[in-house]
Design a protein that fits this description.
- The chain is α+β, with helices and mostly antiparallel strands.
- It has twelve helices and twelve strands.
- It has four domains: 83 residues, no CATH class; 89 residues, Beta-Lactamase (2-Layer Sandwich), CATH 3.30.450; 72 residues, Orthogonal Bundle (Helix Hairpins); 149 residues, Heat Shock Protein 90 (2-Layer Sandwich).
- Helix content is 51%, strand content 17%.
- The protein has a five-stranded antiparallel β-sheet. A five-stranded mixed β-sheet has the order 7-9-10-12-11. A two-stranded antiparallel sheet has the order 6-8.
- α1 packs across α2, α9 runs parallel beside α12 and α11 packs antiparallel against α12.
- It binds adenosine-5'-diphosphate (ADP).
- The site of adenosine-5'-diphosphate has 21 residues, from α11 and α12.
- Member of the two-component regulatory system PhoR/PhoB involved in the phosphate regulon genes expression. PhoR may function as a membrane-associated protein kinase that phosphorylates PhoB in response to environmental signals.
Amino acid sequence: MSPGYSIKSVLNVVLWYLGAWALLGWLLDLFWPTVTVGLSLLLAWHYYFQFKLLDWLWHRRTLLPPRARGSWSFIYDGIYRTQRKAQQRRRNLAQLLRRFRDAAEAIPDAAIVFRRGGELVWCNKLGQLLFGLKWPADSGIRLANLIRHPEFNRYLKKGDFSHEFYLPSPAREEIELEVRIMPYSADQYLLIARDITQIRKLEKMRKDFVANVSHELRTPLTVIQGYLEILASDPENIAGGLQEKAVKEMSSQSDRMRNLVEQLLSLSRIESQRIDIFEKVVDVPELLHRLQNDAEQLNSEKRHNITFEIAPQKMYGHENELRSAFSNLLSNAIHYTPAGGRIKVSWRAVGQQMEFSVSDNGPGIAADHLPRLTERFYRVDRDRNSRKGGSGLGLAIVKHALERHHCKLSIRSEVDSGSTFSVRVPDNLIVQDQH
Ligand code: ADP
């Protein structure tokens, strides 16, 4: 209670007031009529301020109370204070709600708040985008009527949210969502949906990768095992000349396995190592001369006509990775071009940039294969047992190694005419100072 307002002070005022009227009545010898007038005036005075109070509470928009006197000033001030406090509390709550919504907008997931009965209370922008909801237009509508997915609706109805639920985004089918629901307040639930399309893709890639590697290793192992079984069960064949064929075939298959393992390691090294490509200078001309020597050995069987055009420019980069990329392109050309073909390797300036390219007049590659050529284990010749094909990892290694140097592999090819694999090196990777 206000310190200025007490029973004592009220009694004090009333007694003085009535005392004054009683004295006047006694002097005029009209005691009761005068006291009645005094009481009526007091009543009128109270009614007046009561009316002002009601007018302020119901009709005025202002928070400030009208002026009042006596005990009414305490009542007006009290109400004013209570209203101020309520307003402040409302403001704090609104601020809290705004902060919650800002936070919910900031999270990279869709957030939806709904009542126990399923009515939508609120959702963030991602919720609107991924579930096709409109807020506030849809607020109060049951989720079952907004999200048309029978299984999901059954999940909502069942009310057992101990496990997450997976569903394609109702608004964009190509996106897969992982939904988790948790109690939010007394009768509300919070639904959080996460886009797991990329994770699913990676999972599939990992599974495919393991399946491919197992398959690649199983083929040569089966061949080796087959020969070992024949040799063990029928030693006579050794004398019959099988031994030589078996050893040759087994060593070729073990070469194939070693090659696969080396390529896998090389790919994983390229992917996992962090390098600063500007740290070291690669002497590309020297690297290509070494590649030329290696090519002579690789070419001893097929006797292609291989020419090299080597400009003196050096570049920044990682030597092992560049060697791996360039030599894969050259060994593919040697491998896939029929004997006696023409192969041209060049390292030349194109404007401010440099270009490395390998051209051959081999069998070429049909256009529909080109976009998938750099995928792991992708081969034009689908037959895994084919003697011609390798592991299908070579161009994947080339692509990754080049991407780390901000270079892109371009492939031009025409069936029966030949192929050109080229790499443009941006000018900022070229070493300008050639001392
Ligand atoms: P692989 O280990 O099978 O050679 P790559 O990733 O190096 O795998 O090559 C993928 C496919 O691209 C090969 O299976 C082959 O069919 C085709 N290819 C690559 N280089 C050439 C080329 N110079 N000429 C024709 N086909 C090629």
